[in-house]
Structures are given as C-alpha cells and as structure tokens.
Input
Amino acid sequence: MSNIEDRKFLEGILSGDEVIIKAFYKKNLSYISGYILKNSGNEADVEDVFQDALILIYQKLKSDSLELHSSLSTYFYGICRNIWRNRLRKNKKMVITEDVVHDEEGIPPEIIEEIAQKEREHVYRKHFLKLSNTCREVLGLLFQGNSMKEIAHITGYSEGYTRKKKFECKKSLIEMIEKDPAYKELQLTPEKK
Amino acid sequence: MDRTPEIFEKIEGYLNNTLPKEELLAFEKEISNTPALKQEIEKHRSLHVTLSDQDTLEFKEKLVKISTEIKKEETSSSFFSLFWKIAASIVVIFGVGTLFWYTINNQDQTQELYAQYYEPFPVEDVSRGEDDNALQDVMKSYRNGDYSIVISELEELPNTIKKDLIHLYLGNSYLNTNQEEKAIGQFESIQKNSQYYENTRWYLALTYLKLGNPKKIKPILQEIIEYNGVYKENATQLMNALTK
Output
C-alpha cells in the first residue's frame, strides 16, 4: 500500500534528495515532537529519535527490505514511538504516560528487535560527525579498510602524521562515545548480538 | 586499560588480519588472558563495522543539516508573520479573500485557545498586617473584575510589599484591559528564584497566545514543562494544541 505522495517520499529518501527529505521532515516533525515532549523528552530527544527512525527507513530502502503495510507516516510514527519507548525503558527514571503495551502500531517484532540493536550505531554516528574534518577523513579511510600507507597516499599527509592523527582521532571518538549517557545505559543492559 | 598508539595498531592489525603469524598468536593469547583487552577490541570492531557504512553516515549528515535549516526558518518566522500581515493587507486591498481568511483563521485559533486556558491568577490570602489593608481593598476590586481600578491602585502602591504578587496581579489586570505589552513587562520582571516564577511564566505564555504569537510561546511552555510543577499538564496540552 503506498500512495503517490508516499512513493515520492520513499524515492527521495533513498536518493538523498534534500528537498523531499526536508518536506518529509516538516510534515512529520510536529507529531513526533508532540509525542516525545509529552512523554518526558526534550527537543534534543525529538531530533535524535526523528533522525534515527528515518535512518532505519533509509537503510531498509537501501537493502530493499522495507515492507509497508500502512501509510508511510503511520509506519514512521510507529518506528519513532518504538525507538522512544525503548530509550525510556533503558533509562528507568523516566515514565511514559501512554499505555506502553497497547499499541505497537503494526510494527513487526523483528523490527522492534532491530531498533534495540541499532541503538549503539546511532551513538557512534552522532559522535563521528562531531569530529574535525581531518579526523573524519583519516578515520573514514581507516574504517573502509585502508592501511596507513594507503591513507597517507590518498590524503597526501606523511605516514607519520597519518598514524598520529589516526590514533588521536580514534581515541577521542571512543572517549566521546563512552561519555555519552545513552551509551552508558546501553552498556548496563547489553543487547544480544 | 591504557589507550596507546601501539595497542591501537595491534587491534587494527588483528581486525584487518594483517598481523604476522607469530604476533597474532601472541596477541590471541594476550586477549584470552585479558578481559579488558577483549572488550576494547569489541569496541573497535563495532566502530569499524558501523562507521564503514559511508552512505548511512552521509544520510545522517544530511538530516542534521536539514534539521538545522528548519530550526533557522522557525526563528526567522517572526519576520514571516510580519510578511503575512503585509501580504494579507495587500490581498485584502485587491479583494481576494482566501489568504486573508487563512491568517484570520490562525488568529482565531489562538484566541480560542486563550479563552480556553486563561483564568485570572486567583486572589491569595494575604496576611492581615497593617501594611496589607490597602492590598486587601485592591483585591476586592480584582475579584470583582474591576481591573482598571486595580491598575490605578496597584500602580500607586509602594513596591516594597509583596512585590512579586503585585507584578502578577498587575500583569493579569493589564491582560484583561488589553494592555498586553505592559502585562509582558510585569511578568518578565519576576526573577527565576521567586516562588511565583512558574506562575508568571504561564501567564507570560498566555499573553503571547492572546497576541497570536505561537513561536514565542513554545520555548516558555517548554520551560514550564521542564519545571515540572502545577502548570505542567496545562502547558503540555497547550503545546500539543499549538503544534497540531
């Protein structure tokens, strides 16, 4: 089931069309923001949940495994609500006012499971994007599987400098991640892999 | 465990399968004897796996950019509301009704919400000291809704007694006599550490609601919600009504 507007959104999300993604963002932000603010969240939570849900849809589109049994908005809201409930559960200090059990909005259990597993990835990405351009370049190439020699060749830095940067950047990335309260909560109740 | 360039090199070599055989064997032994090292390797491994997906990273980056743009548009929307007013007048001049109808409709909605949520700040039992007699009289007028009298009386009162309460009553009276700008002044003058701070934030939000300025209201409502006091529920409901 997918009407013309949904199709347009899905195509835009997959191809990374900023205009379409922005339209999708604006169309759905107020609903998500209302839900999260009502349930012990703040503006930053709204942004995180919204983006993480959209990333999940993007990844599903890319691997051609998105199964929509409702409108895109309904599906998207369901993902957002599940992400947020999952985070609230981790942080037991928070209380959700809505009846947690009563609706999973037609989101299949395996996706709810997937949501929990992806939590750590969101934290990684968030902090990686905060690094300096040099760090992102060097680490990006490292994660792609390049050797120090290859990275030095691609970037034009000396091998010594590349090595030094790689260490400093990776160390600070890991430290930023470890300091993130969301990551700490994940460590307390590790997900099964 | 200490993070050194050497240990990072080893871990990366291990993950990329580029360690010479002897080194690999020694390292594997070290891993099995050192739980902390094992943990550290898992951290590196999941970082490498997640962050090697460049497409998703780029997508996330795009989202961050788009979100920033949307926030910027929102903050500049006070300019847009002026734009809308001008556009509406032009449209009226040319006799086309639709755009005008749109703005008026929005204004109607905030007015309706204002009517729904606004209740004058209730008269508090003021202790019956000599100094408070004057205030007692004024409160009688306040209770009766004679706001112009309240204003003229309170403006005369020395501002030493019950300063914050006076601000609240004055603000409410201005609000009821269509002097919103003055009401804002009264509500804004109450400090964060006052026991009436939450009350004044709520009335400040309502004043902006009456003025039909939802963009100004939201951060205040957000603050009230985070304050987590008696107005939280009202603030949450109003916020939802506004974001609809």
Notes: Chain A touches chain B through 46 residues (CB under 8 Å). Residues 44 and 117 of chain A are 21 Å apart (CA to CA). Residues 18-38 of chain A form the longest helix (21 residues).
